[in-house]
Structure formats: structure tokens, C-alpha cells
Amino acid sequence: MGQVVAAAALHGLAPLSGSMPGVGAVSYTLGGGVGLLARRCGFAVDRVRRAEVVTADGRLRVAEPGSEPELFWALRGGGGSFGVVTALEFGLVPLRRVFGCGLYFDLAECPDAVAAWARWTHSVPEETTSAVTLLVMPDVAGVPARLRGRHIAQVQICHAGPAEQGRRLVRKLEALTGTPAQSTLREMDYSESGAVFDEPDTPQGYRSQNLLLDSLEEGAIEELVARAGPGAPVMCVAGLRHLGGALARVPEGAGAVGHRGAAYLASVLSPVDSEGGGDGGAGDLHRRVLEPLTAQAMGRSLNFMFGPASAADVSACFAAADYRRLREAKAAYDPEDRIRANHPIPPAPRG
């Protein structure tokens, strides 16, 4: 997606790109696409106008509103189970600059930072998309001295409105959280927006789980912070993303994206040895970390599900009627289940 960001920037335009520029545009978009402009502009997949797809019978098909409409619906949020997408056409938005980046809080000094961020999200405008990531920073050279070896809450902000408005919003946040150990906030060209989450670009195998939530309870936040902290038996990175805004509005002719009414997304991720197989205990830890949030859970998100997923996990990404429809689309275009994805949708039974 980073190549699309760079090309669009030359014309004062931006795609609805995600937090990591190195992620492929097609895989990101087919899963829905919750990006840096999500609350202002909605899901990336809602901007898709046309897809070229090779289906299991070897045919190159064009999926758009007037051609292969059921395939077009299924691809837009249903993932990669329906064919090999060789081209996507999607709309861009006029945007040159944003205000944002990261605020880093030492949770030993600001233990209420995550709950304070959650309270702050109740009053921000749709132009503000934000998240918070929890991780224990490695005690190694290259990590800023104030953060080294500390349990950190990294608040990520992308404000697609006037920079001064963004600064006022951040001052309101800091009035709740206290002073961050480090701030990288600034006005920037959208082509630099990968700095907002500042995610590692080195290839690595990961496993993750997630929950879409209708709300956040402060007691559950405290448990999440504690369970994903320095005492966790496996290295993990937990995160919360603020949803709502344009994400909650269903456009005309919408695709298969599920649970649009979710207010937050919680995720937990761990690196794994991709050569050895298994997850090294990450799955058990992830379930324990997310367990305090299950009372508010609406379902799951394809985009934040790394590694092989079970049928139950995938079905939880959709309303029951939409999942049945996806299975019927799979049966129509790949009845023998030849195209396998990490997020598999099996064909509906024949007859």
C-alpha cells in the first residue's frame, strides 16, 4: 500500500491506507481495511469500484456492480477465499497533510493512561482516528533511554483536520493522562503517515487474536493492561483502536464487512518461530489477555487475525445471514474449495 500512498501524494490525494505501509493493498482491502483515516472516511473496501479476479475454474472475471455482483459483494470484506485478485480499482480522497504521530506513556508513571485515552475518545471528532498499543520496550541500544525496558502505552493519533485543532485535542488528552515520556506529534505529509504507528518493517511470523467491542469498561482495561504486561509468559503486544464515525455508516451497495457498529477493536499479537510450527503458547496467552473484554464483544475482524484461523473465528467476523451468503458465493465460484486462505470460508453444502 505504501507505493499507492506515494503515487497518490503527487496529486494531493490519499488512499484509505492502514497503519503499516508495507502491507499489501489487496489483502488489506479485502479484509475491510481499517486505516488511519477510518473514522473520517470509513472502510477502505467501501471505496473499491472494480476487481479483476481469477476464480477456481481459471477464468478471469471482472467484479463490479454491473458484472458478477455477488462476487463483488463477497470480495469486499469477505477476504481471499473467492479467487485470486489481480487488480483493484478504488477511489482516493483529497488530502495532503495530517497532524499526528505518537505519545509514549510509561505506565509506571501514568498508570491511568489507557483508561484516560478511552475516556478522551468519547468526545473527539470524526477527523480523529486513534489507537493505543501496549508493549514492554526492549532494553537495547536504539530504544530511547526514557522508554528502555519500560511497560509503555503508545497512543497513536492521526487527525485529518486543521493542525491547531489536533493540538487542542492532544492538550485535552494530556490533561487526563499526564505528561508523556516522549512525543513525536507533528504536522506531516500523508506520505509520511507510516510514522504514526511506527511499526517494524522486518518480516516476522506472528499470531494474533482480536475482538470487536461495543464499549470499553475501565475495569476491563485495567485487566488488559496487567495481563499483557511484563509478567506475561510470552512476549505480546496488545492494542485498542477507536472505531465508530464513518465506519459505522453503511454506504449504498456495501459489501460483506461485518459488525460496522463496533466502537473499539482489541487485539493481541505475538511473534512466533515460523520455521518451528506451533505458537509457543501465544494462543493461550491471547485468550487470557482478551478474556476481560468478552462481555462487550460483538465479533471479530479479519484484518487483525494473523495466522491460521478456525471456521468459528472467521464466522464470528460476520452476521449469521451474511456468513451464509458468503458460503453460498464460495459454492458458486469455488465449489471444490480449491482456493485456500488463512481466513477460510467453506462452500455451502450442495443440494
From TrEMBL:
Secretion signal span: none
SUPFAM superfamilies registered for this protein in UniProt: FAD-binding/transporter-associated domain-like (SSF56176)
Keyword hit for Flavoprotein: yes
Regions annotated as coiled coil: none
Residue ranges of domain FAD-binding PCMH-type in the record: 1-95
Cofactor names: FAD
Entry protein name: FAD/FMN-containing dehydrogenase
Superkingdom, natural source: Bacteria
Keywords associated with the record: FAD, Flavoprotein, Oxidoreductase
Gene Ontology molecular-function annotations: FAD binding; oxidoreductase activity
Similarity field: Belongs to the oxygen-dependent FAD-linked oxidoreductase family.
